[in-house]
């Protein structure tokens, strides 16, 4: 992709469609690791009920964007607003309590603990775990019910992905942040997990998905952003992005 | 045979105390990978707290409350005071160093140790204080294999077992225990799940330190004398127990504690009191050479 | 270390490592210090050291000898901790071994009187071998393992020294006395070389000056040498060093052994100058003081170790004399205040508020009918005379002093928790309370005070400036 980076990002169409209220909003975010400037003036919105994908090459700052949204790293300037509240200086625990949940890169299960315990930890912010939440997760992932006593570290990659998603769902999030949910999965499983994401989305969970697999992501997303070395260089509806020439050449291989 | 039974009981009591101290090291190491060298001082403060509660309630001479109530009060107060002290130490001496080098909290812990030892010396002087347990509790104990066993030791042993079982349940069955294990395994992932890591760490320090406080009162009840230097050696023994058992492992700490306690008591009885500590040291070296992760440990001591 | 055992490529890596770290920020103290070349400072120090005995009293010589020993130990520990990054908590035991070793080989204890030229090398070699064995026992010497083993080793040494007077040997009726227990070993021989006996402290003082200068020069040379750089590299990033196929373990064990040898040598001098050895000389307080010195100066820095050791070795001397200790206290207070409050306006406000606060407290004590004594009755010195009219001194100084101490610790803790807005409100109370506690309680118990200060210093230093006054910010020490 050779598009000249423009601070605000070249808009193919303007922001989220009218009636949507923003759920997550990053405005003017600049994030540093030590002296290294990682995110430069990132502006990004996820509307209520939207499925937004964030595309970009390796090391361009996608994970950092999610971490900034979740409060794992603090931006030097800029604000993070969630559900109408400025959470920029609020700790991660509070953001999760307000409805964010994450399926982290590489899943990050608590390997020595059982599947059930992993799920229960997902419900940490809800205090006493609600059996209904667990039932819902088991309904989505029937396999997990059978495996609930198994040590999470011994699960296969695909099963681990299910636990990671189930764990995030246990806090009944209004927004799920997913970092490369397809990583390390066979094409068949990728398809499955994207179906699941769509299901969840239809149930009303908003999503911000980071993906290398741009085809797949754009096929289910409402809108997308393209990040390049820390700047948003493109944004628009999924439709527009899939038809964008340069993007096609760079990521979609068509 | 009589000597053997006597030493067995002594060893188990001592082992129970060491195990409680070792559990504190293990809990804190498990969660923070931090060797809390100040843990012995927390135990010492627990012993002092128990002593002053006893004096406040009229002991050892004329307790103004039933003796059992006095002992309960001593344990509770010691556990609370030690627990809070541990929390304070974490807050002021360790938390600011969490992102620092590995050596920094160790040095800071040495500083805390020195400070507490001398603060207690400043406040309470170097006079030896005695729990003088026989003056308010002198019942005949049960007979075990024809040997009269001191009831105080039985109490201490039972209490240590209760605390250990309670701790195990806390860690394995409760939400806090799950959170604690999650933080121990992968702190960043725990944060992502919305776990307030600081809160978990504070609780871990409270629990670990409260156990040390209880151990302090136990030692006071069994061996009577408390002074401001008692923490160092006991801390070292508890620490050895934790490492021998496998640091980070809860059953390991218990096993290590019992082992060190038994070794000490049998060496004292059959060889020489001089060699008790030396032998525990040799056991430590041996275990570290043959089984670097400790008897029941699963994790290496340093995360690299 | 055999040069040829260094693998190819290692040198480039060491050099690169040096490059990565040396360009980093130095502390403000280091910058001021660095204006003059090192040898100017060094010569001045040596000159002062050489001239001092001409004007000095016996007391001063004693202080000088202690300082020399402390400098030697600090230099040795600095090699182990600062260069190789090994947390050796049993370091003082090597000092003790050296001292006891010499005492056993040159005293009436066993009737052995080896000449100094034989005894000292034998002891130093033996102590080094001890270091080697211990280092090998903690095989990989990785991080916390070494801390554990050495901590225990140090404690075992003290315990052995304490109870080594009644060792039961199987097959022998009477117990064997090796160490003299709490009484230690006395009547140790003086050093004597070529028939010249070191009959007074002055001799040992000059010997130590020579030893310290030689050691310092050796460390300086080491700084620029291959092995010195390799040590530093290993200390800062053992994994990377290992990846570059440096013989990490060998380098570390060697640093450990050299450190032990230096401590052993210092121990022999100690035994000879004291003419006796006692277990309590080699206990934890000395160790912590040494660590404080090395870390205060900045571990891994030669001048840091020297200056840190000098400061911490002389400070206790200053605390011993009431009028000096007052001065030290006032200096500390002023420096603390100057650091805590940044603008001159606020500083003046705090000082005025403190004065007012003092009068209010004075009034309060009077209203509560607390028994007091006139301030001039219990201490001398110009400062306290001035303060006499302002500072209430209760009759029961222990009780009130202790209460004040607890209050002070709590207030200082609170100070770190509250925001910058509230701090100025707390400061006057803290300043007054420190003065109160100092004069009412702490000044009476200098040894406890010293330990409290060192303990607090270690914590604060770790938080504020873990690399010490002269250190560079390091990648990672362990
Ligand atoms: N904790 C950290 N400290 C220093 N640098 C970091 C840290 N985390 C990430 N970086 C750097 O920040 C840059 C962006 O990292 P980030 O993880 O956001 O990339 P990404 O877009 O998610 O890449 P990928 O697709 O490979 O996951 C990278 O160059 C990375 O090396
Ligand atoms: Mg990433």
TrEMBL record, chain A:
Alphabetically ordered keywords of this record: Amino-acid transport, ATP-binding, Nucleotide-binding, Transport
Q: Where is the ABC transporter domain?
A: 24-254
Keyword hit for Nucleotide-binding: yes
**Stretches assigned to coiled coil:** none
Q: Which SMART domains match?
A: AAA
The record's comment on protein family reads: Belongs to the ABC transporter superfamily.
Q: What is this protein called?
A: ABC transporter ATP-binding protein
Q: Which organism is it from?
A: Terrabacter tumescens
From TrEMBL, chain B:
Q: State if Membrane is listed as a keyword.
A: yes
Question: Where does this polypeptide localize?
Answer: Cell membrane
InterPro entries assigned:
ABC_BtuC-like, ABC_transp_permease, BCAA_transport_permease
At the top level of its lineage, which domain of life is listed?
Answer: Bacteria
Q: Which UniProt keywords apply?
A: Amino-acid transport, Cell inner membrane, Cell membrane, Membrane, Transmembrane, Transmembrane helix, Transport
Can you tell me where the transmembrane regions are? 12-35, 42-61, 67-89, 101-124, 152-171, 200-226, 238-262, 269-290
Its principal location?
membrane
**Pfam families, alphabetically?**
BPD_transp_2 (PF02653)
How does this protein sit in the membrane? Multi-pass membrane protein
Q: Where are the coiled-coil regions?
A: none
The record's comment on protein family reads: Belongs to the binding-protein-dependent transport system permease family. LivHM subfamily.
Protein name per its UniProtKB record: Branched-chain amino acid ABC transporter permease
What organism does this protein naturally occur in?
Answer: Terrabacter tumescens
UniProtKB/TrEMBL annotation, chain C:
Indicate the transmembrane segments per the record. 38-60, 67-94, 114-138, 145-162, 203-222, 253-274, 324-342, 348-368, 399-418, 425-442, 448-464
Q: What is its main location?
A: membrane
Subcellular localization(s) per the UniProt record: Cell membrane
Which keywords accompany this UniProt record? Cell membrane, Membrane, Transmembrane, Transmembrane helix
Spell out the InterPro entries in the cross-references: ABC_transp_permease (IPR001851), LivM-like (IPR043428)
Q: How does it sit in the membrane?
A: Multi-pass membrane protein
Q: What is this protein called?
A: Branched-chain amino acid ABC transporter permease
Task: Name its species.
Answer: Terrabacter tumescens
């Amino acid at each position: 992709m050779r598009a000249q980076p423009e601070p605000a990002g070249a808009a193919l169409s303007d922001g989220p469609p009218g009636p949507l209220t923003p759920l997550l909003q990053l405005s003017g975010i600049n994030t540093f690791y030590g002296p290294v400037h990682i995110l430069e003036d990132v502006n990004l919105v996820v509307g209520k009920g939207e499925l937004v994908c964030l595309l970009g090459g390796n090391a361009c700052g996608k994970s950092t964007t999610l971490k900034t949204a979740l409060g794992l790293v603090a931006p030097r300037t800029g604000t993070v607003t969630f559900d109408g509240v400025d959470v920029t200086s609020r700790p991660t625990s509070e953001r999760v309590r307000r409805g964010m949940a994450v399926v982290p890169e590489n899943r990050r299960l608590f390997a020595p603990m059982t599947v059930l315990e992993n799920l229960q930890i997902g419900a940490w912010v809800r205090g006493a775990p609600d059996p209904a939440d667990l039932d819902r997760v088991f309904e989505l992932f029937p396999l997990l019910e059978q495996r609930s006593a198994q040590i999470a570290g011994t699960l296969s990659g695909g099963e681990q992905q299910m636990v990671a998603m189930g764990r995030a769902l246990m806090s009944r999030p209004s927004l799920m942040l997913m970092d490369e949910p397809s990583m390390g999965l066979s094409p068949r499983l990728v398809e499955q997990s994207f179906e699941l994401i769509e299901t969840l989305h239809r149930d009303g969970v908003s999503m911000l998905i980071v993906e290398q697999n741009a085809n797949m992501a754009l096929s289910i997303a409402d809108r997308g952003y393209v990040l390049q070395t820390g700047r948003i260089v493109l944004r628009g509806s999924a439709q527009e992005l899939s038809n964008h020439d340069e993007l096609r050449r760079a990521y979609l291989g068509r | 045979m009589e000597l053997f039974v006597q030493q067995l009981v002594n060893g188990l009591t001592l082992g129970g105390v060491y195990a409680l101290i070792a559990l504190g090291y293990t809990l804190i190491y498990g969660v923070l990978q931090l060797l809390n060298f100040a843990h012995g001082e927390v135990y010492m403060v627990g012993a002092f707290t128990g002593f002053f509660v006893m004096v406040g309630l009229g002991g050892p001479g004329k307790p103004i409350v039933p003796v059992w109530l006095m002992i309960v009060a001593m344990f509770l107060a010691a556990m609370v005071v030690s627990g809070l002290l541990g929390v304070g130490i974490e807050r002021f001496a360790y938390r600011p160093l969490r992102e620092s080098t590995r050596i920094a909290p160790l040095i800071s812990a040495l500083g805390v140790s020195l400070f507490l030892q001398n603060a207690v010396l400043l406040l309470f002087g170097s006079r030896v204080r005695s729990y003088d347990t026989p003056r308010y509790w002198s019942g005949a104990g049960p007979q075990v294999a024809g040997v009269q066993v001191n009831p105080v030791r039985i109490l201490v042993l039972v209490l240590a077992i209760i605390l250990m079982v309670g701790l195990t349940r806390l860690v394995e069955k409760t939400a806090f225990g799950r959170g604690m294990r999650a933080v121990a395994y992968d702190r960043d992932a725990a944060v992502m799940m919305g776990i307030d890591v600081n809160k978990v760490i504070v609780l871990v320090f409270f629990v670990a330190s409260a156990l040390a406080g209880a151990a302090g009162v136990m030692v006071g009840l069994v061996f009577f004398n408390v002074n401001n230097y008692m923490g160092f050696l006991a801390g070292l023994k508890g620490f050895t127990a934790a490492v021998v058992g496998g640091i980070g492992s809860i059953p390991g700490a218990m096993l290590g504690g019992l082992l060190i306690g038994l070794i000490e008591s049998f060496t004292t009885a059959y060889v020489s009191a001089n060699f008790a500590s030396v032998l525990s040291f040799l056991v430590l070296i041996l275990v570290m050479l043959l089984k670097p992760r400790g008897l029941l440990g699963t994790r290496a001591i340093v995360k690299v | 270390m055999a040069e040829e055992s260094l693998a190819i490529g290692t040198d480039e890596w060491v050099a690169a490592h040096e490059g990565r770290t040396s360009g980093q920020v130095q502390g403000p103290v280091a910058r001021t210090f660095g204006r003059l070349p090192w040898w100017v400072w060094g010569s001045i120090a040596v000159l002062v050291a050489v001239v001092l005995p001409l004007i000095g009293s016996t007391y001063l010589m004693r202080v000088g000898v202690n300082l020399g020993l402390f400098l030697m130990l600090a230099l040795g520990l600095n090699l182990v901790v600062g260069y190789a990054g090994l947390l050796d908590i049993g370091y003082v035991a090597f000092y003790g071994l050296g001292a006891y070793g010499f005492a056993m080989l040159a005293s009436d204890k066993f009737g052995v009187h080896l000449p100094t030229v034989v005894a000292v090398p034998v002891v130093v070699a033996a102590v080094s071998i001890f270091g080697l064995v211990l280092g090998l026992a903690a095989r990989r010497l990785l991080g916390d393992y070494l801390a554990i083993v050495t901590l225990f080793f140090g404690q075992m040494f003290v315990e052995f020294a304490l109870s080594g007077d009644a060792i039961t040997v199987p097959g022998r009726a009477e117990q064997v006395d090796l160490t003299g227990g709490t009484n230690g070993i006395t009547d140790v021989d003086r050093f004597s070389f070529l028939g010249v006996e070191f009959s007074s402290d002055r001799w040992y003082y000059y010997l130590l000056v020579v030893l310290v200068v030689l050691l310092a020069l050796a460390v300086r040379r080491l700084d620029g040498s291959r092995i010195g750089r390799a040590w530093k590299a290993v200390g800062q990033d053992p994994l990377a060093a290992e990846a570059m196929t440096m013989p990490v373990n060998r380098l570390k064990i060697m640093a450990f052994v050299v450190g032990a040898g230096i401590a052993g040598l210092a121990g022999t001098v100690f035994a000879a100058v004291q003419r006796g050895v006692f277990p309590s000389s080699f206990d934890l307080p000395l160790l912590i003081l040494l660590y404080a010195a090395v870390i205060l100066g900045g571990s891994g820095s030669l001048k840091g170790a020297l200056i840190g050791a000098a400061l911490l070795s002389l400070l206790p001397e200053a605390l011993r004399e009431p009028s000096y200790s007052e001065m030290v206290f006032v200096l500390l207070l002023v420096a603390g205040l100057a650091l805590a409050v940044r603008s001159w306006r606020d500083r003046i406000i705090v000082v005025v508020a403190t004065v007012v606060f003092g009068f209010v407290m004075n009034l309060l004590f009077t209203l509560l009918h607390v028994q007091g004594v006139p301030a001039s009755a219990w201490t001398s010195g110009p400062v306290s005379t001035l303060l006499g009219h302002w500072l209430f001194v209760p009759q029961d100084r222990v009780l009130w002093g202790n209460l004040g101490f607890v209050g002070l610790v709590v207030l200082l803790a609170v100070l770190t928790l509250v925001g910058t807005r509230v701090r100025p409100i707390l400061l006057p109370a803290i300043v007054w309370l420190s003065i109160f506690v100092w004069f009412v309680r702490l000044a009476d118990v200098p040894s406890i005070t010293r330990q409290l200060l060192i303990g607090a210093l270690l914590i604060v230093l770790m938080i504020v400036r873990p690399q010490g006054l002269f250190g560079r910010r390091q990648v990672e020490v362990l």
